[in-house]
Design a protein that fits this description.
By secondary structure, the protein is mostly helical. The termini are far apart.
């Protein structure tokens, strides 16, 4: 599972540059500021739900994070979220995927933070 997803992009700078041009720099900057916080929150909920065997929370957190990932082109993290969502009724299977999701989550947070600090979304 990991090898396939490692080929997927963490984020899409071109998407953000186009968004800044079409929707404005202020809106794009706000999105970039919010993204890492959202990723950390939802990944934390997923980790907690798996740890506690809370399938309802796991389903809700996966669904929320998956939507966020695909709306802003975080394909690698989205891949792992979708994989956990597909097996969320089986906590053992979800637990096996969790380290990959956590790694992708950290990579995503780093990517978004770098984009913000370097203002690379400005083109």
């Amino acid at each position: 599972m990991q090898n396939d997803a490692e080929q997927l992009p963490v984020g899409d700078l071109e998407f953000l540059q186009e968004l800044a041009q079409k929707s404005g720099v202020k809106i794009t900057r706000e999105l970039i500021i919010a993204a890492p916080l959202s990723v950390e929150k939802e990944v934390g909920l997923i980790v907690s739900a798996i740890s506690n065997g809370d399938i309802a929370t796991l389903k809700a957190a996966c669904h929320a994070l998956k939507g966020a990932c695909y709306s802003v082109q975080m394909q690698r993290l989205g891949h792992y979220v979708r994989a956990i969502e597909a097996v969320c009724d089986d906590i053992t299977a979800a637990r096996e995927i969790l380290p990959f999701l956590e790694k992708a989550g950290k990579e995503s947070v780093t990517w978004w933070t770098d984009v913000l600090e370097q203002e690379s979304y400005l083109g």
